[in-house]
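Backbone shape codes
____________________
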Amino acid sequence: MFLLGLPASPPSAAAAHRSSISLTPPTGFSQTFRSSVPKVASSAHSILLKDLTAGRILYQYQPTRRVFPASLTKIMSAMVILERADLEEYVTVSRRAASAPSVRLRLQTGQVFRLGDLLKAMLITSANDACLAAVEHVGGSEEGFVRLMNERAADLGLVNTNFSNACGFDTPNHYSTALDLAILSEAAMQHPTFRAFVREEIEVISPINANRSYLLRNTNRLLGRMPGVEGVKTGFTSRAGRCLIVKVSQGGKELLLVLLHAHRRWNTATSLIHYGIDALQAGTAETLAGPLARMAGQRGSSGGRVGSP
């Protein structure tokens, strides 16, 4: 994948090819822990696995590589909405919002929704029409809202992030990194409303001026299928590939995983989450990060459709 306009070094042949890495623990690990380690984790353009309890990075691969973030962008949009607006406000869907491309609910021009319901649609089913309606209302225009997004990114110290739109469409000046997105996700999960919305599997919203309902089904397939999964967001464009940020709490341990342009997204995420949980429960967190980082280094460095299928 060549990201035109993104000031990052080109990937090596090894990284460009979807090779696999073997996640093998260092010598001296117990047999119990060894048996829990996945044989192979499929590659991604960028990976970050963090122990939130201790604040340690357990595994990273090209965590500062600038890539298209797709609908993971909506995490920042949601934060700005939560910090600047009342979710009980009424929002009228504009013609521009109703005609948003790709993943959408097919909202109609002139429909009126609670802002909170549009936020649910943004986060649960990644609807672009709901996203545009919400950000136009809060920012006065999408352009005005994007300025607020970039100001908030600067406040968080996201030095390798820039937004040019609010929903995640690919443009040369719209980029982020696994490290920045991890920081952003941690901040967003501090908001109780955000936490509540991203863990909902199914919701229904309705406009207040029309007799119609819209079913929201969460695009995160790990919700309800893996114990302890609490969100956060999926994303996809033709250039960004399949992306995922997920927070997991198991046995008093908390993990955050960021996968960008991942091959076999759900299998890769499941393997890495199990691996991280097993490592923490085995008390190996301090020795795990170094060997995994070295293995990642051995692999080399390196405007499409927006949605979250």
Q: What stands out?
A: The chain is about 35% helix and 20% strand. Confidence is low (pLDDT under 50) at residues 1-42, 285-304. The longest helix spans residues 265-281. The two ends are 20 Å apart (CA to CA).
